[in-house]
Amino acid sequence: SHPAVCACPFLAATSSRVTRLKTTYMYRAGANKIRRNTAFATVDVRRELPGHTDGVWDIMHSPTGRIVATASADHTARVWCTESGTCILKYLGHSGSVNSVRFHRSGSMVCSASGDGQVHLWRCPVTSPSPPTAANASQHVTKSSSQTNVQPLGSSVPLSPSVDTIVPGSGGGFYTDMSNIAHWAQGQDPSCQLDDDDLTGDRAAEDQNEVIDRSSVLRLPVSHLSGHLGVVTAAHWLADGDHVASSSWDRTLKLWDAETSQCISTLTGHDQELTNVTCHPSEKLVLSSARDTTFRMWDLSSYDCHPVHVLQAHSGTVTSAVFSSKGHVISASDDRTVKVWDMRQMRSPTTTIRASTPVNRIAISADARLLALPQDNRHVRVFDINGVRLDKSSQKQGHSRMVTAAAFVTCDESPDDLYSVGFDNRVIAWGVVLPGS
């Protein structure tokens, strides 16, 4: 899906008319040849995370704790506590639609891409939960029997720690409010709290100007990466944690130094707008996808940063391409197909999944066993890596408009298994129970 600077009205898909936000001209014809499975998984809605006021483009689960981050056309990125389902932090630094959001591997930094043409790096001062000690076990009880460690958050990126928090002030202005955490977190799940080092200070300002949803609000980034000449559709941290890759409608892929905010390299080759970028979890490899029906794999370990593969395997816009932890590449397209590739030989896909409608930003589980396909028909479908569909649910309680992205959880402590976001403004948490489990 192609994020825009300003959100447009979006109607639910019907049999007679589909009003879409995408810039493609029509759906590609194709039969639905989904491989059926006799033993289905159970995929049920567990909760919703309300708060966004416009379509939601992206979601990511933190690698270090029970929090998720979302990016929305309402110009905000939000961080949510999965235990309580509440928004615990809002980022308001962008002036356009926030199109993607990605946690740093430490969990303490976030990069967000926007329709305002910039990538912002900002601190996420939320501590990760850890098991309680014997000394404090009798003092605190939570739903998961865990307690938050409030300690400074480390990051391999030596960025400035200064972050401004704001609340609406009288006369349309803003107060700089470093609010007391004990007061802010009152009534929320104690496993998701903000770090005292980042949010401390004047409690009176918050008492007089209460933050909506009782969440902390960040206005200024630690740094911003400027240089793209169009909408920035996505940004992603490289495996080293010191660099960021970004994709744009200006048809370029840029590599940035996160510490200096300087553009190291601008990579060209795509003939049309880029839709997404994804970095390998351990190697200096990057995948870029575009409207030109191709996706490319770039090797950033060499000076010339050349593409090692140019895949023309789809007949429509490639909406996303992602790496798995087991040596796969998975690509999704508006042509209603998802293809699984073996990185050892990329000449042809090992599996092709045929969906009933275009597929957007796909997700793969940490163990590389499951794929989640967010689709234009309001559904999220779950497949295994071999292309066998696992879910049977009609998802009547799910999304009411196009599903734009999905994300599997990355830690065992999370109460949910899968998250999805859509242009119905909703963030939905799902439970996934596999056959035989």
Structure description:
With 437 residues, the chain is an all-beta fold. Helices cover 2% and strands 37% of the residues. The protein is built from 2 helices and 32 strands. A 5-stranded mixed β-sheet has the order 2-3-4-5-13, with no helix packed on it. Strands 1-32-31-30 form a 4-stranded antiparallel β-sheet, with no helix packed on it. A hairpin with a 5-residue loop joins β17 and β18. The protein starts with 41 loop residues before the first strand and ends with a strand.
Q: What is the count of DSSP helices, taking H or I runs of 4+ residues?
A: 2
* Spatial order of strands in the largest sheet: 2-3-4-5-13
* Overall 3D form: globular
Low-confidence segments, ≥5 residues, pLDDT <50? 4-38, 128-191, 195-212
How many angstroms separate the termini? 34 Å
What gyration radius follows from the Cα positions, in whole Å?
Answer: 21 Å
Instruction: Please identify the oligomeric state.
Output: single chain
Query: The biggest beta sheet, please?
Result: 5 strands, mixed
Mean pLDDT: 75
Task: Report the portion of residues in β strands.
Answer: 35-45%
Number of separate strands: 32
